[in-house]
Amino acid sequence: MSAPVATASPTTTAHAAPAASPRDGRRGAGGVLLSVLTWVIGLIFLAPIFFMVLTSFHPEVQATLNTPQYFAPLTLHGYREFFGASSGQSVWPFVINSVLASVISTLLVLALAIPAAYALAVKPVSKWTDVMFFFLSTKFLPAAAGLVPLFLIAKATGGLNQIWFIIILYTAMNLPIAVWMMRSFLADIPPALFEAASLDGAGLIKTLLRVIAPIAMPGIAATSLICFIFSWNELFLVNVLTSTENAQTLPAFLPSLVTSQALFLGKLSAGAFAVSIPVLIAGFAAQDKLVQGLSLGAVK
Amino acid sequence: MRWKKAPHVVAAAGCAVLLTVTAACGSSDNSGGSSSSSASSSSSSESSSSSSSSADTGSGSATASGSDTASSSAGSVASSGGSGSGSSSAPTSGGGTGGGGEPTRNPNTDGKTINVLMVNNPQMIDLQKLTEANFTAKTGIKVNYTVLPEGDMRDKASLEFKNQSGQYDVATLSNFEIPIYAGNDWMADLTEYAKNDAGFNQADIFPAFTNSLTVDGKLYGEPFYGESSFLMYRKDVLQSKGITLKDTPTWDEVADAAAKVDGAQPGMKGICLRGKPGWGDFGAPLTTVINTFGGTWWDKDWNAQVTAQPFKDAVNFYVNLVKQHGEVSPDQASFPECLNALQQGKVAMWYDATSAAGSLEASDSPVKGKIGYVQAPVKETKASGWLYAWSWAIEKASKNQDAAWQFISWASSSAYENEVGTQLDWARVPAGKRTSLYSNPKYTAAAEAFAPATLTALKNADPTNPGTQPRPTVGIQFVDIPEFTDFGNKVTGTLAANVLAGNGSVDDWANDTQSQAQAIGDTYK
Amino acid sequence: MTAVQEKQTAVSSGVAADVNRKAKKEKWVRRIPLLPALIFTIVVTQIPFLVTIWISFRKWNANRPRLSGWTLNNFERVFTTKSTLLDLWHTAQLVLVVVLVSLVFGLGIALLLNRRFWGRAAVRTMMIAPFLIVPVAAALFWRYGIFDAQQGLLSGIATMVNHWFHPDAPASTVTLVSKHPLLAVEIALIWQWTPFMTLILLAGLQSRPGDILEAAAVDGATGWQVFRNLTLPHMRQYLELAGLLGGIYIIQNFDYVYQLTKDNPNTENIPYLIYKTVNAAGDYGLASAQGVVIVIATIVIATFALRTVSSLFREENAR
After folding, report:
1. Which PROSITE patterns match (chain A) (predicted)?
2. pTM for the structure as a whole
């Protein structure tokens, strides 16, 4: 995966100038047309989110998109309903569960993945490629295939409807990705640095903490971001393995905003947007990390 | 073969003895019900007829209050251990009616938390809103609700009860699940709770529901609201086209009317009929039409009858009616979508649950006062309405069964009906389960448009003999076997996707469905 | 002599053994940091799968608690049920269509974004946004806010256009989910996954060696020639990587299929099938057999995919 890495220039951020492209020089009607086209495409992809946000601030009666009511009065009614104004169902337990599940599982993933990546990248164990592929292959196992045993194991161990069980599963779910990402980041650190560290007599742990960690920080950030997003988004497992606010996360809570009577689109839009806000913030704040993360560290 | 037991038990308990009307039961003696059914049903009908007349007298239950306080304290002493496991230990009756049916504090359950799983119907949302002030404040029991759309709720409940994972104490089940689950011992026996909770007044509950929630003499569920099905229509729209509907119209007349009112107003369709996949969604009204056309899923010997002519005629009729004069994108439409469509003037008629009337006549409904109600349309039978009750059941694995009963005792009480009436809207009362409600002048005044039609529909529904031929087990809009859930979801799914929304033929669908139905039927032979 | 010789060999073999032991120890020291992650992964991912295999040979139905014993019937039912084969086909179709279309869109958009123009950062941010909406939230909004025939945005657009010509016409209704359910799921998934592809491919484009491009420009190569002969070969790895990763996630997609087209047999994929077999049918034996089959199918596909990644890997190994 380092082929892209080897040739990658550090100019991948949006703000940095791209590598010189012959088309950059082209100006005039064609260029303007292409720019307009790019804008139009961007707006099309943004449109569903725009209407989601717009609807979320509309009163239920006007929260219809047939036809969109651009100038309906704005209100926080949808958000108040999402937070349980009239149903009395507080959303906070679900928020807390979501935060616990994604943050703790991410920390666990890092604790397990960084040493593993060290063993795979810096002083590679024999057959390290096989190990890497083993990790990746577990990502190919559809969670659905393990659904029955996971449910039965959860029931047998008292893990049903418990956040710790969800945390363990999320850790396992994200660990392969994290190992791949961290390995690729650590592989980029000059081996000389590690050697120097061990000559100093620094132990393995010290080496990891003092020398490697600071250099690997951007990689760790990218890894955390991806693990956080995937845990925050997960629905399939939580849908089957949890039942109440004791352990249910926000994705499992959202469908309950669909009520069987009358209007709920405003409330639903508010909920959908509110639940996505942490991911949106994390993603926008670390746009270039996102690319590294999504490509398992192959693209930097 | 191996699984005959549960359905036959159900057949025995299921004879429709509604209110004091016992005539409907006479015919069932000759039908699929086993010989034991007549015995048990006649005895229960006797007790019900005598007790329901006494319950007729008052909407509250002032007469019972004195004895209740006594029995409640006695009960709590008896089960001071706290972990009452259903029938063995004497359950408390804390949820009883002190005076007007108020829930009371019980030291054994005060401060407990119970988890309740329920469907997101309007009646349940009202309950959620009223819980804090009317239940938790008085009993000290905190209630955590998990409210889900019907399909998700059923998935969750079945996973929960089948595995006895003990996450929910109470769930909304129905007269479909309860007889099946009881056979596997997945629910707590409520018989003693109900008996000792004098304020609850079990005799006030419609006997048809008490019977269909009772298996082998043990009561497993209490109805929250009961419903049959009937036809709702816009009086003004039909009048403008010069149409009048009989009290019990035929399906052909309804189809004619739907054709005439289609397009009566801009964007208005003729009729709304459910088409969203699901045995309890599309499957329910469809099966009542199949029944009244003379069809059935299985005959009494478990031979699949899907390719029989009456069955195919019924499905063709339903599908064509929806395709020609029905709502937009019928394969997405179930109860909530049709309710919206009728309220917003997008359809002129709607055949669905009687409980819809409460929402249509609520004070904030745009069509309040504009709706007429007639019985479920028929063809070969005299009545075709279904019988259904969202009912509370306590999971056997629940550790808070006493508190759970207190909750049920409140939610299904006439006191709660009063609270909805006084605090929200009399039209929104979860109705169709208690005789006393129908002699409550406030309710009958608010519900005068639909209460008589609802009562007639409930009275005429006979789960043991819903069609023109004997059936292997009970059920009007369903067949009461565990396989019907998955089977019903699948075949209504293919019908909706391939025939209703696509160009597939009913014949192809029927041939495919017949073999699936036969495979299930063979396991019962 | 012989004694000395023996002694020598003994010593040397002793030294060799010592070296061996040291090497072994060294090996283990190297392995130790790897072990927690490896063991954790094996325990949490492999044990459930072994249990799945075991259950798939059992008669086990939650509706019939008294049933037990070994059987091959579960697998027989997987392969003889028409709808299961159809579900496999839907799964494959979803992966292929969504991955290919998102890749093509992603490449096109990446090429557009790779130019310098006014507001480039803003457009790039807009393009990322769909990927950052929680999938179930997005699916619910697509279902009720966009595809809904009565109140959805698609119907709204149709109404708007219709009103230009017939100002008094009633609101239009677009029934995409009813008529083309799989297409509806694909549209929503492509919307969410195109940004993913765009991001990776854009990074790839920007890593093209600038000097070669300049040289090509000096040589007077046309845009198409540059794309065909320089960009595309360079982008191959990125396309493969993006496609592989997208495929891994989309093959397991549950949120969209479940929320957009509940109980629709024409979109049902394997994860949803298993979910239904567990929940509605309560047939754990059958659900496990379905799980085993999907894993075998994925392993076959994954082997090809991994071979692709392998080629990337070898280049690094050779480093």
Report:
1. ABC_TM1
2. 0.84
